[in-house]
Amino acid sequence: MRPVRWYPIVLAVFVTTLIVSNIIAVKLISIIGLTLPAAVILFPVAYICGDVLTEVYGYSRARQAIWIGFGCNLLAVIAIWLGGILPADSHWNANVYITPDEASQAYQAILGYSLRLLIASFSAYLVGEFLNAFVLAKLKVATQGRWLWTRTIASTLIGQGADSVIFISIAFIGTIPGTLLGSTILHQWLFKSTYEALATPLTYVIVNALKRAEGVDHFDKETDFSPIHL
């Protein structure tokens, strides 16, 4: 792979959005009457970064970024888990009107993850991101690099669709009614897809600027698309 100057910056934004999204996802918010995890305000940015990485640098670089994001996210989860199981010092929150035990419970409530949610999150992330990169790369070759908006929207619809189905199903099946499960999947998918579709002009600006700056516009004509080929 040839040296690239801006790839680390896009990668850093990609990884940061993943980690922050996982942290804020614990809060449920209401947007235009829809109940959604707070992560929806930021997580679609990760898909925009994924589109940029695949469109400019190719599937191999995007695959590298996906696995780096997975590793960094896993490290953050392990660090938060260790912080939660370590005993609280008696002086923690000494100036706040809660005990160290209550502060520990608050820590767990905000930052703690259940095993089920972790499996749902990591599974949805890997499947969704790889589908997004694969579809975009294939469509770029098929369209000979034209109509970027069709590639980003189509890849998002497929990637975000898989992400929403996998995450909501694993995280909530058996705990909420089937009709609510289906509507939650649909609402999350539509919201995230609409979010990225509206960001298409910004994606165009970033992609075109990076192609000029890097002097690269990769086409995946002979790429090995195996997700595990590092």
Describe the structure.
The protein is mostly helical and 230 residues long. It contains eight helices and two strands. The chain has one domain (7-214).
- Sketch the major β-sheet: 2 strands, antiparallel
Shape: globular
Oligomeric organization of the protein chains: single chain
Give the number of helices.
8
Structural class by SSE content = mainly alpha
Low-confidence stretches: none
Quote the distance from N terminus to C terminus. Answer: 13 Å
User: What is the N-to-C order of secondary-structure elements (H for helix, E for strand)?
Assistant: HEEHHHHHHH
Q: Which helices and strands occur, and which strands form pairs?
A:
Blueprint: H1 7-24, E1 28-31, E2 34-37, H2 43-57, H3 59-85, H4 100-111, H5 115-142, H6 148-172, H7 178-198, H8 200-214
Antiparallel strand pairs: 1-2
